C-alpha cells in the first residue's frame, strides 16, 4: 500500500499586513520619548539651585526616597500638602513645556540632516560613478527599465556604480520618493557569468523600493545616530560625572540609581539594535519573495555557505549571533521561497522587545507629562503605547493563526507569545524608576509576575478571538474582523496600562494593598470602623479598579467581540479571502466556526442558580450571626460582601461548565458564560434579596415578609461594576484551570489513539442565533452603561460612605503617623532630611526672625524707654508673619528638633501678639514683656539650630 503526502499549501505572505512598519514606528517613538525624558531630566537637574536633585522637598518634608517606602513618602507629602506644594513651586518648579520638548525637536532636526546628508555623501562623485560611465551602450539601463516596469514602479530609479566594492550585491540609498540603486563592482562582473543572478539582485533591490523599505530603513538609521549624538553621549558624560562625584557615605544608596541609569541607556542600545535587525531580516525575505514572484531565478539564492552547527555551544552561539545580523542566513532565505512560514511565526524576541519598549515609552512619557502638569498627555501616551503594542502583537497573532488555519496546522494558543510580551514589560519596569529608585529591586518584586501573567492571558484571548473570526468570517477580505479585533485589543491593553501605571506600580513599589487601613493608620483620612472589615476592604479595592474609565468598557469588550462572531455562524465553505491567500488551493473547513451557543446558555443558567444558592447560604449564615439589638452598618457591609461572593461563585460555576464542554475557545466561552452569569445572578439574587424576610431562616435585612426592591437596590448599584470585573477575572482563572486539567489528562493518552468523531450538531436557525447573540450583547452593553451611570450618580459609592470624616490623626500626632509608614530612618538619611529642611526654608525663617529680633532690640535700646508706635508696629507685624509662615512650613524631620520648632513657632506668635497689644494699648509693660518673650523665642531658635547641627554630626556627613 502506497501512502502519498498531500501537497503543502503555500500561503501568500501579502494576505495580511506585515506589521513591520508599526515596529519601525515603535522604535522611532521609543527614541523620541527617551530623548524627551533623559535630556529633560538632565535639564531639570541642571536648573535646580540645590544639590538634592528633585528630592529636596520630599526630604525636607520627612520623606525617605532612599528606603523606597511609598507609604512613608505619601504620608510625609500629604500631611504637609500645602508646605510641600509651596516648596515645589519655589525650589523645584516645572520647566516650561518648550524647554524639555526642545530636545526631541533637536533630535528630529539632526536626524533630518543625517537622512538627507548621508545618502548624498555615499553617492558623491569620487566614490560612485554614473551608470552611463560603465554602460555606454545602455544595456544595463534598458534592463533596469524593464525590471522597474515588471515591479510596478512609476518611474525608474537613479542607478550608480561603486567600482571599488568587490561584493556581488547592490544597495538602495535615498528615500522612497528619490531612490538610488548603487550597483557594486563585483555585481557588474557577475553579469557576464551569471545574468540570471544579476537579474535576481536587481529585482530584489527594486522590491525594496516597491515595498517602501528605503525611507523607513534610513530614517531609522538617521534617528539612531542622532540619538547617539544628542542623547547617548551627553547622558553618559553626565552620568559618569555623577558617578565619580558620589560621596563614599552615599554609595550604597545612590549606586543602584546610577547603575540603573546606565542600564537604561544600555538597554535602549540593545533593544533598538536587536529590534531594527529583526525587522530588516523580515524585510529581506519579503523582498526575496517579491523578486521571485516577478520572475527572478531561484538560482540567484544558491549561495554556498557552511552548514550551521547542529549541537553544542556553537549552535547556541550561532543563534545568538544571528539576532544581531540585519540579513537572514542564506539557507533560511532559500527555504522561505518555498514556504514563508517564518513570516507568519509568532517569535519570542520581537514580542519581548515590544513589551520592554512599551514599558519604557509609557513610563517616561508619564513622567514628562507629570512634570509638565499635563495629565491628559499621560492618558494619550497610554493609548499610543497600547496601539503600538497591538500593531506588533496583534498583527503577528492574526497572521500566525491565519497561516495555521490555511495550512491545516495546529493553531498556537498565544500564551507563550503573551508571556514573552509580559516578560519584556516586567524587565522594562526594572530599568525605569516606576517601582524602584535607590534600590536594586522593588520592595515587592513578585508583583511583576502579575505583568507576565497578564501578558499571557491577553495574548490567549486575542489569539482565540482571531481564530474564531477567521473560522467564521465569510467575506472577501479578512481586514474588517482583523481591524475590529485590533481595536478591541487596544482598548483592553489601554485599560491594563492605565491600571498598572496608577495602581500596579504602587503595589510593586511597596504601596498598601489595604487602602482604607493605610489611610486610617496614617491619619490621612478617617475610615469608619464598619468599612475597615474584610468585605469592605475587598469592595473598596474592586470599586477603585472598576471605577477607572476604561476598565468596564474593556471588560465588556472581552465578551462582546467573540459574541459578534456567533451571529455569523459556522462557515460551510472556504471564503474568498482564503482562496485568494492560497492561490486557489484547497482549504479544509471543519464546520466549527463557532462553538455551540446552547451549551453556553445552559452554563449561564447553572451559574445563576449557583449564585442564588450561594446567596441563600450566606443569608442563613448572616441570620444566625445577627445581633438581637438590631441591624448595624457592619451587617450591611458584610451582606454586600456576600452578594459579591455569590455573584463570583455563579460566574465561576458558569465559566467552568462552559469551558469544560468546549473543544476550542475555552477562554472565550468562559468569559461569555461568566459575564452573562453575573448579569443573570444579579437579576436572580436581586429578586431573592427583595423578598428578604419571607423565609425566616434567611432573614437578613428584614424580619417580615414583603416585596421590598428599594432595600437591595442601592446595594446592587454599588456592586454591579465590581461584580462585572470580578466575573471577568474569575472566568480567566477558570478557563486556565480547565485548560491545565485538560492538558494533563491528554498527556498520558496513547499516541496511536484515534480521536472519536463528534456527533453532528443539531442545526440552529440563524434567526434564533442572531436573537440570542443580540440579547447577550445588549446585556453586556446595558450592564456596562448602567454600572457607569450608577457610579456617576453615587459619586465614589462605598468610598463616600467610608470617608468624609475629619482626619484621625492631628498635626500633633504627625510623628506617630509617619512612624507607622515604614522602618526607622537611618542617621544618614535623617541628616539629609534636616539639611534639606534648612536649605529649603527652615534656616531662612529663623534668620528672618533673628534679623527682626535684632532690629527690634536695637530700636528699644536706642529709644531709652520712649519709642514711636509707628516704628514698633512693623516689627510686631513681621513677628506675626514669621509665626504664620513657620506654622505653615514643614515640621523639622527629627523628633526633638520638631518639638523645639513647635515651641519656637508658638513663642514667636506670642511675641508678635503681645507686641501688637502693647502698641494698640500704648502699654510699656506689655512692650517689656514682648521683649522678654522675644529673648525666649531667640533661645528656642538657637536650640533648633543646635539640635539640627547635632543631627548632622550624628549622620557623619560633613
From TrEMBL:
Keywords on record: Cell membrane, Hydrolase, Membrane, Metal-binding, Metalloprotease, Protease, Transmembrane, Transmembrane helix, Zinc
Domain of life where this protein originates: Bacteria
Membrane-crossing residue ranges in chain numbering: 21-39, 95-115, 216-237, 257-275, 341-361, 381-406, 418-440, 446-470, 482-500, 550-569, 600-624, 636-660, 667-691, 723-745, 766-790
Keyword Protease: yes
Cofactor(s) recorded in Swiss-Prot or TrEMBL: Zn(2+)
InterPro entries named among the record's database cross-references: HtpX_protease (IPR050083), Peptidase_M48 (IPR001915)
Protein known as: M48 family metalloprotease
Lineage of producing organism: Bacteria, Bacillati, Actinomycetota, Actinomycetes, Kitasatosporales
Amino acid at each position: 500500500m502506497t501512502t502519498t503526502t498531500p501537497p503543502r499549501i503555500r500561503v501568500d505572505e501579502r494576505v495580511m499586513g506585515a506589521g513591520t512598519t508599526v515596529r519601525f514606528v515603535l522604535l522611532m517613538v521609543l527614541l523620541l520619548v527617551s530623548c524627551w525624558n533623559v535630556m529633560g531630566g538632565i535639564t531639570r537637574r541642571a536648573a535646580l539651585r540645590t544639590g538634592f536633585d528633585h528630592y529636596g522637598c520630599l526630604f525636607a518634608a520627612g520623606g525617605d526616597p532612599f528606603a523606597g517606602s511609598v507609604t512613608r513618602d505619601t504620608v510625609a507629602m500629604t500631611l504637609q500638602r500645602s508646605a510641600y506644594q509651596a516648596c515645589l513651586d519655589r525650589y523645584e518648579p516645572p520647566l516650561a513645556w518648550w524647554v524639555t520638548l526642545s530636545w526631541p525637536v533637536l533630535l528630529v532636526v539632526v536626524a533630518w540632516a543625517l537622512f538627507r546628508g548621508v545618502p548624498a555623501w555615499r553617492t558623491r562623485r569620487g566614490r560612485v560613478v554614473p551608470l552611463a560611465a560603465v554602460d555606454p551602450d545602455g544595456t544595463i539601463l534598458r534592463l533596469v527599465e524593464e525590471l522597474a516596469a515588471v515591479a510596478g514602479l512609476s518611474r525608474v530609479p537613479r542607478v550608480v556604480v561603486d567600482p571599488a566594492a568587490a561584493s556581488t550585491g547592490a544597495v538602495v540609498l535615498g528615500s522612497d520618493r528619490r531612490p538610488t540603486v548603487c550597483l557594486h563592482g563585483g555585481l557588474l562582473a557577475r553579469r557576464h557569468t551569471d545574468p540570471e543572478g544579476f537579474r535576481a539582485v536587481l529585482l530584489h533591490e527594486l522590491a525594496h523600493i516597491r515595498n517602501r523599505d528605503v525611507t523607513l530603513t534610513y530614517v531609522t538609521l538617521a534617528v539612531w545616530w542622532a540619538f547617539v549624538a544628542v542623547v547617548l553621549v551627553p547622558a553618559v558624560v553626565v552620568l559618569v560625572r555623577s558617578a565619580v562625584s558620589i560621596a563614599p557615605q552615599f554609595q550604597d544608596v545612590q549606586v543602584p540609581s546610577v547603575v540603573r541609569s546606565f542600564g537604561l541607556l544600555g538597554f535602549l542600545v540593545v533593544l533598538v539594535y536587536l529590534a531594527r535587525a529583526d525587522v530588516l531580516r523580515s524585510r529581506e525575505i519579503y523582498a526575496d519573495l517579491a523578486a521571485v514572484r516577478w520572475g527572478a531565478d531561484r538560482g540567484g539564492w544558491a549561495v554556498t555557505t557552511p552548514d550551521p552547527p547542529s549541537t553544542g555551544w556553537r549552535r547556541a552561539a550561532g543563534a545568538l549571533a544571528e539576532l544581531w545580523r540585519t540579513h537572514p542566513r542564506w539557507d533560511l532565505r532559500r527555504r522561505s521561497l518555498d514556504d514563508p512560514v517564518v513570516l507568519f511565526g509568532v517569535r519570542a524576541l520581537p514580542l519581548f522587545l515590544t513589551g520592554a519598549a512599551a514599558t519604557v515609552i509609557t513610563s517616561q512619557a508619564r513622567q514628562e507629562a507629570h512634570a509638565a502638569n499635563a495629565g491628559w498627555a499621560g492618558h494619550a501616551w497610554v493609548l499610543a503605547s497600547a496601539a503600538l503594542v497591538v500593531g506588533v502583537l496583534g498583527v503577528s497573532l492574526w497572521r500566525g493563526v491565519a497561516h495555521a488555519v490555511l495550512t491545516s496546522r495546529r493553531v498556537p494558543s498565544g500564551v507563550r507569545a503573551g508571556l514573552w510580551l509580559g516578560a519584556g514589560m516586567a524587565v522594562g519596569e526594572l530599568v525605569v524608576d516606576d517601582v524602584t529608585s535607590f534600590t536594586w529591586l522593588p520592595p515587592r518584586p513578585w508583583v511583576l509576575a502579575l505583568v507576565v501573567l497578564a501578558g499571557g492571558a491577553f495574548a490567549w484571548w486575542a489569539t482565540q478571538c482571531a481564530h474564531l473570526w477567521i473560522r467564521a468570517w465569510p467575506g472577501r477580505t479578512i481586514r474588517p474582523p482583523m481591524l475590529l479585533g485590533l481595536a478591541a485589543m487596544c482598548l483592553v491593553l489601554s485599560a491594563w496600562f492605565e491600571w498598572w501605571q496608577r495602581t500596579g506600580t504602587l503595589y510593586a513599589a511597596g504601596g498598601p494593598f489595604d487602602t482604607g487601613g493605610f489611610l486610617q493608620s496614617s491619619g490621612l483620612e478617617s475610615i469608619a470602623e464598619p468599612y475597615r472589615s474584610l468585605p469592605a476592604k475587598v469592595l473598596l479595592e474592586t470599586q477603585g479598579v472598576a471605577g477607572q474609565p476604561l476598565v468596564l468598557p474593556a471588560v465588556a469588550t472581552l465578551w462582546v467581540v467573540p459574541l459578534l462572531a456567533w451571529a455569523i455562524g459556522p462557515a460551510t465553505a472556504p471564503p474568498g479571502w482564503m482562496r485568494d491567500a492560497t492561490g486557489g488551493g484547497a482549504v479544509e473547513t471543519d464546520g466549527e466556526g463557532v462553538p455551540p451557543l446552547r451549551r453556553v446558555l445552559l452554563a449561564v443558567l447553572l451559574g445563576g442558580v449557583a449564585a442564588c444558592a450561594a446567596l441563600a447560604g450566606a443569608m442563613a449564615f448572616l441570620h444566625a450571626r445577627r445581633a438581637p439589638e438590631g441591624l448595624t452598618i457592619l451587617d450591611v457591609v458584610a451582606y454586600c460582601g456576600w452578594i459579591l461572593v455569590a455573584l463570583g461563585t455563579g460566574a465561576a460555576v458558569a465559566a467552568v461548565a462552559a469551558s469544560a464542554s468546549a473543544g476550542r475557545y475555552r477562554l472565550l466561552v468562559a468569559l461569555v458564560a461568566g459575564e452573562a452569569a453575573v448579569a443573570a445572578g444579579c437579576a436572580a439574587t436581586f429578586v431573592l434579596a427583595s423578598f428578604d424576610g419571607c423565609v425566616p431562616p434567611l432573614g437578613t435585612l428584614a424580619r417580615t415578609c414583603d416585596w421590598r426592591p428599594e432595600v437591595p437596590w442601592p446595594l446592587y448599584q454599588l456592586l454591579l461594576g465590581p461584580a462585572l470585573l470580578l466575573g471577568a477575572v474569575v472566568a480567566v482563572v477558570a478557563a486556565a484551570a480547565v485548560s491545565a486539567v485538560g492538558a494533563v489528562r491528554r498527556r498520558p493518552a496513547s499516541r496511536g489513539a484515534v480521536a472519536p468523531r463528534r456527533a453532528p450538531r443539531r442545526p440552529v436557525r440563524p434567526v434564533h442565533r442572531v436573537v440570542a447573540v443580540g440579547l447577550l450583547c445588549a446585556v453586556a452593553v446595558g450592564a456596562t452603561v448602567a454600572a457607569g451611570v450608577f457610579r456617576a450618580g453615587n459619586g465614589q459609592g462605598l468610598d463616600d460612605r467610608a470617608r468624609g470624616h475629619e482626619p484621625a490623626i492631628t498635626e500633633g500626632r504627625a510623628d506617630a503617623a509617619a512612624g507607622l509608614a515604614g522602618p526607622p530612618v537611618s542617621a544618614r538619611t535623617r541628616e539629609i532630611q534636616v539639611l534639606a529642611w534648612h536649605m529649603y526654608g527652615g534656616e531662612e525663617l529663623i534668620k528672618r526672625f533673628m534679623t527682626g529680633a535684632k532690629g527690634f532690640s536695637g530700636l528699644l535700646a536706642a529709644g531709652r524707654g520712649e519709642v514711636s508706635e509707628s516704628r514698633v508696629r512693623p516689627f510686631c507685624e513681621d513677628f506675626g508673619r514669621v509665626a504664620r509662615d513657620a506654622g505653615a512650613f514643614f515640621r523639622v524631620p527629627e523628633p526633638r528638633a520638631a518639638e523645639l520648632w513647635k515651641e519656637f513657632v508658638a513663642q514667636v506668635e506670642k511675641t508678635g501678639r503681645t507686641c501688637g497689644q502693647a502698641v494698640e494699648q500704648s502699654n510699656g509693660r506689655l512692650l517689656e514683656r514682648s521683649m522678654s518673650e522675644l529673648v525666649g523665642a531667640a533661645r528656642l531658635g538657637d536650640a533648633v539650630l543646635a539640635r539640627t547641627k547635632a543631627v548632622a554630626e550624628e549622620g557623619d556627613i560633613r
